[in-house]
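Students often ask what a holo structure prediction actually looks like on paper. The answer is less mysterious than it sounds. You provide the chain, you provide the ligand, and the output is a string of discrete structure tokens encoding the 3D arrangement of the protein together with NAP.
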Amino acid sequence: MPSALITGITGQDGSYLAEWLLSQGYQVVGMMRRSSTTNVGRIEHLLDDMIVLQGDLQDQGSLLSLLEEHKPTEVYNLAAQSFVPTSWNQPALTGDVTALGVTRILEAIRFVNPKIRFYQASSSEMFGKVMEVPQKESTPFYPRSPYGVAKVYGHWITVNYRESFNLFATSGILFNHESPRRGLEFVTRKITDAVAKIKLEKQKELRLGNLDAQRDWGFAGDYVRAMWLMLQQDQPDNYVIGTGETHSVREFCEIAFAHVGLDYKEYVVVDERFYRPAEVDLLISDPSKARAQLKWEPQVSFKELVTMMVDSDLARQQKLG
Ligand code: NAP
Ligand code: F7E
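The corresponding structure tokens follow.
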């Protein structure tokens, strides 16, 4: 039976990846950090089918013990301080978890079992102030936040351990991917949750930052399949994963509000507090390498993604009463 360790199991992608690997017959071990309250909302339905253990990317010993005890054949490193605005308020923590955490897990693999296949969750935020349009594997990086800078480190240490120690270490450069399980502070979920509350008259307005920012948004459920496919290849490599389409925050609002019969212009208020010290204006992927080599294609369109998220938040808010 193949076995996988997923760091960041409580996060959006951790939950979808665990579902996918379980459906493929894997034994799944999820790593979560200790907290004083339970934090398993996204994986509650999977708890009988997998093992969830404590560990932390800031603690080398915990990573070594998990690998020694559970002997996974694949490790997916999804854990990170992943919210871009927080990375300006907590830059050192972001560097320690999102950058150095990658080295700690690679070191654990190198010492415990260098045959383990490793996936690093790299990000389109590494392209930042983009050097070419669209962005592909060879596009130079120009990160615009401490988060982006930390992810560039994580990417290059993955490549370096591949080249230095011959590890099967792969970097997936994923563009934004969303779902009904997306954290509430990210712009897509902030919008769909607000649309539901406004429709149900629980909220009056939605305060947002830069409406003209453009992102290549896909569905998280599609993207975890790409992670798995990357580790089934003959050789480790770097892959860009995205839809190849870009849309603005404004367009996201337009579709989300229209889906419940409302006009976003009547509810959205631009608030400077949500502007960033340095912005990533335009992201759009060229995923042709993934299409050709992994035979990967996204299944969910932009409009389907927006309406799926609005419908889910409406149902949730209705249930909450
Ligand atoms: P997410 O929902 O924010 O999940 C992050 C996970 O990391 C959570 O389980 C979190 O645990 C865990 N974590 C944070 N600090 C940790 C630490 N010190 N030790 C162990 N675990 C820790 O992020 P996501 O959207 O699923 O993204 C997964 C990964 O892909 C991240 O590395 C992210 O940076 C990267 N990525 C995401 C996107 C995207 O659009 N979603 C695109 C490109 C790359 P708690 O629940 O305890 O906070
Ligand atoms: O912002 C603009 C904001 O926070 C998207 C993470 O998963 O994807 C994510 O990072 C855009 C930005 O995601 C608000 O200025 C406007 O341009 O949803 P976001 P992100 O920063 O792109 C990448 C690929 C990752 O790797 C990250 O981990 O939306 N925006 N108004 C706003 N953003 C937020 N959060 N809140 C607003 O009110």
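The pocket of NAP (ligand 1) is lined by residues 7-8, 10-14, 33, 35, 39, 56-58, 78-82, 97, 121, 123, 174, 176-177, 183 (CB under 6 Å).
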